[in-house]
Amino acid sequence: MGSKERRTNSFPAIDGTKKANPLFEILGECRLVHHFLEKKSDRSLWLVIKLLDGILRGFSQVVFANNTISGIFVIIGLAVADIWVCAAGLLAATLATVTASVFNQPWSSISNGLVTYNGVLVGTVTASICPPIVAATHGPTYLSWCLIGFGGVMSTLVTSGMANLCKGVSLPPMTVPFNLIDLLMFICLPSSLTHLATFATADNATTLELAASINDSVLNLNGTLLVDSTVSLDWIMVLRGSLLSMGQVYAAESVVCSIIMYIGITIFSPMLSIALFTGSLLASVCALGLTENYAAIYSGLWGYNSALTAGAIAVTFYVPTILSAFNAAMAVVFTAAAQRAFGLVLAPAGLPILTIPFVVTSSMFLAVTSGTGRERLVKAPDGRPPEYQRRRFTRSASAIQIEACDV
């Protein structure tokens, strides 16, 4: 889920020579913070601040937003939903960033949060699924924190390896490292250490239900079956579920959390926010034909993978065009179907689907190409916000037309 490695190995230079308005320097990639910190020495306490900036950006990079302020909003949203999930994400993200620094990963990847976002997901999702653990109001025990910390460290190494492997096919690693690490963790750990345990109670269960439906029942991560096929169709609840999908990306179910996150993402790019919500809404509607268990739709579980797919394809890795939007719409439908299919395979083993449908679908649809034309599929050359990418593409196309007319 990260914005492009998209997101490139360098922070693009500011276009033009005029001094930018500080307000606009906070929007988009939050260049005000970046250019302030790049002037500071790495041999002082400023290095800690620089690493902190990378951590904050990593929280927003999960949904393709490269902005320090956006990351702060995401963290606030997580804290509102579940303080322990938020703390786990911060722990894993911090260890992932420090590990990247120790292994001398490209500084642009560290400062833009590209080595961090998989660690964020490992932390938040593991905290939701894997404590022996949440006794009423208490947070994860020391064993859970050790697992989360280990996963954070491992996420950096796996992300680095996957990024090098993916270079040959011109695809980003996305959330492959997160899926590998958490699936291995859930498979290898004794069931008594996770909410997948059959004897876990509803009192210590999280609101995250990542396993897809089985015969119109949802396998909750507390090991119980949530059978709720009697719930009638309510379009307001479908809209609510589409909104909740934003928080479910981070394993948090809260309307307030999702709204706060959307505000933060909008600071980076309104187009990205629209794409994310549209993707989750379309997937939720598609899910009405894939399951009779509307409870899973209302809780946002059918929308988070498709939200990521729409954000990646419509406006992040492709320059926003009519064709990229159509390609994203088709990918969202495919993601919903893939979520159903992977759920049927993984749920009997008590395993969550995580973001596997998003990874599989995006990998295929990001390889789609088109011919020439004004509205065509064009790979985004750098990690600038979608609005900038679209404006630059339009100007380039106009310049080519003017040049052709002159000839």
Q: How would you sum up this structure, described in words?
A:
The chain is mainly α. It has a three-stranded antiparallel sheet. The protein is built from 17 helices and three strands. Residues 3-18, 132-139, 195-227 and 399-407 have low confidence and may be disordered. α7 (117-129) packs parallel to α9 (176-188) and α12 (270-287) packs across α15.
How is the secondary structure organized here?
Blueprint: H1 22-26, H2 31-37, H3 46-61, H4 68-81, H5 83-102, H6 107-111, H7 117-129, H8 142-166, H9 176-188, E1 213-214, E2 217-219, E3 225-227, H10 235-249, H11 255-268, H12 270-287, H13 294-298, H14 304-316, H15 322-346, H16 356-365, H17 386-406
Antiparallel strand pairs: 1-2, 2-3
Helix pairs in contact: 3-4, 3-5, 4-5, 4-11, 5-7, 5-8, 7-8, 7-9, 8-9, 10-11, 10-12, 10-14, 11-12, 12-14, 12-15, 14-15, 14-16, 15-16
Produce a short descriptive summary.
The chain has 407 residues and is mainly alpha-helical. It has 17 helices and 3 strands.
- Spatial ordering of strands, largest sheet: 1-2-3
Which quaternary structure do these chains form? single chain
Largest sheet: 3 strands, antiparallel
Contiguous uncertain segments of 5+ residues: 3-18, 132-139, 195-227, 399-407
Structural class: mainly alpha
Query: Could you give the distance between the termini?
Result: 44 Å
Structure summary, number of beta strands? 3
User: What is the share of helical residues?
Assistant: 55-70%
**How many H/I helical runs?**
17
